[in-house]
Amino acid sequence: MAHTPPPHATLAPYAPPSLPRTLLAVGLAPLLVLLVFALVVLRVMDVDTAFACFMASAVWVAAEMHAWQRATDGYNAEYVQRHLVWRSSDTLADLAGQSATCPATREFVLRYLADDRVLRPDGPVMQ
């Protein structure tokens, strides 16, 4: 029978949110811009309407990226509170070095330790 370490002897996997809407916005906005540009060149669309489409796509991407960043920052803060803040730096370094620790978790914990146990708002995120 395989030995499983107790829950306190391992780190929970670090899995930041992946928002498919953000990926959709980032992927479709350039195509929308290209389509609108082509319609302007072909004189099918008015320049004012095209400019409004460009601005709308820029706002859409910015809003989705902002939502993704807020969700990621919230996840990071919760992860630190639930799994890291109550452990010593030496314990965290040992747990991050275990072979059972996934690479994303290892990288997050090591960055957290390198920043003197301070979570930066735009901080440790591995994509």
Automatic annotation (TrEMBL):
Asked if Transmembrane is a keyword of the record, the answer is yes
Instruction: Write the record's keywords in alphabetical order, separated by commas.
Output: Membrane, Transmembrane, Transmembrane helix
The organism's place on the tree of life at top rank: Bacteria
Q: What is this protein called?
A: Uncharacterized protein
User: Which residue spans traverse the membrane?
Assistant: 23-42
